[in-house]
Specification:
This protein is mainly beta. Helices cover about 15% and strands about 40% of the residues.
Length: about 70
């Protein structure tokens, strides 16, 4: 079945020594929509975006852009 999402981040986990920065985060964006990623300092926003951009490799989970 083809995805209806432009972006799917499913069960993303990222661990640094002594810190679980992301723990099973799921984030989906439909085409043509606008979203904001908000949260407190240290909540993992930058880490999530760095996983999306390929700066960090997620330890668990999958990232799909346009179904790929």
């Amino acid at each position: 079945m083809e995805s209806t999402f432009a972006l799917e981040m499913e069960s993303i986990t990222k661990v640094f020594p002594g810190v679980r920065a992301l723990d099973g985060v799921t984030f989906r964006v439909k085409p043509g929509t606008v979203h904001a990623l908000m949260g407190e300092n240290g909540a993992g926003k930058s880490t999530l975006m760095k996983c999306l951009f390929g700066i960090y490799k997620e330890d668990e989970g999958t990232i799909k852009l346009n179904g790929e």
